Amino acid sequence: MAKEASVMAKSVSKKASAGKKSAATKKASGKKALVVYESMFGNTEKVAHAIGEGLSASLEVEVVEVSEAPVEPGPDVTLVVAGGPTHAFGMTREETRADAIELGAEHGAREFGLREWIDRLPARHGGPSLATFDTRSLGRRRMPGSAARAAARAARRHGYDEAAPAESFFVADTDGPLVPGELERATDWGRDLIALVKVTAKETRH
Ligand SMILES: Cc1cc2nc3c(=O)[nH]c(=O)nc-3n(C[C@H](O)[C@H](O)[C@H](O)COP(=O)(O)O)c2cc1C
Question: Membrane spanning segments where (predicted)?
Fold first, then answer.
């Protein structure tokens, strides 16, 4: 079952979204979640797909890399979940992405990341809820700073309220791997988000 959900979430991910969308991913509600991720070494990408798997229990899910993500999600998008790696206590910057590339990262782009995507978001009037996540080093767990919290603060300036508290998932070292159990925790977090979004929608409807 979990495997099946994973396939469904992936079927509308970056590659498939360019072309056809599987009818199997259409939910009766017609509501959609857009999972936007930045990833330099590939760990946050894995977390994004795991979150998508959890969300796919009741929403159609699209998982997209940040440089391909729309800044104006369509009217069918009820929830945006955005995340990236924590660099230098917050969201990545061009310089920190360059550092990651220097260390061998091959997944992300030096020029564009979550920070730049949020900067481009138009002011929200209604529209989808937002939740943020990040990955961080386990060894720096007690240190301050989280890309997810920074992203939530930045998105708030564009009128986005948080549907849920920002969440961190941990990697063992700079380039990974993810700490055992983190992908399962990400799937559970995605599944649990749905209930929070429903509550938020009820509370904000006037
Ligand atoms: C330049 C740089 C700065 C970093 N700064 C932090 C930090 O302040 N706190 C932390 O917990 N991890 C830090 N890390 C570790 C990253 O969070 C880790 O590389 C990331 O979670 C891996 O995700 P990715 O594979 O999606 O890139 C840093 C990594 C790099 C390359």
Answer: none
Local confidence pLDDT in tens for the 206 residues of the chain: 333 333 333 333 333 333 333 333 456 567 899 999 999 999 999 999 999 999 999 899 999 999 999 998 888 999 999 999 999 999 999 999 999 999 999 999 999 999 999 999 988 877 788 999 999 999 988 888 999 999 999 999 999 988 899 999 999 999 999 999 999 999 999 999 988 776 555 544 43
- Model confidence, pTM: 0.86
Distance from Cα 159 to the centre of ligand 1, integer Å: 27
* 124 C-beta closer than 6 A to ligand 1: no
- Of 99, 133, 136, 170, the residue with max ligand 1 atoms within 8 A of its CB, to mutate for a pocket test, comes to 136
Domain spans of the chain?
28-204
Burial class (CB in 10 A: 0-12, 13-18, 19+), 195: exposed
CATH code linked to domain 28-204: 3.40.50.360
| DSSP classification of residue 119 | H
List, in order, residues 6 or more apart from 68 with CB less than 8 Å away.
Answer: 14
Report how far apart the first and last C-alpha atoms of the chain are (Å, whole number). 38
112 CB near ligand 1 (under 6 Å): no
Residue 107 has what DSSP assignment? S
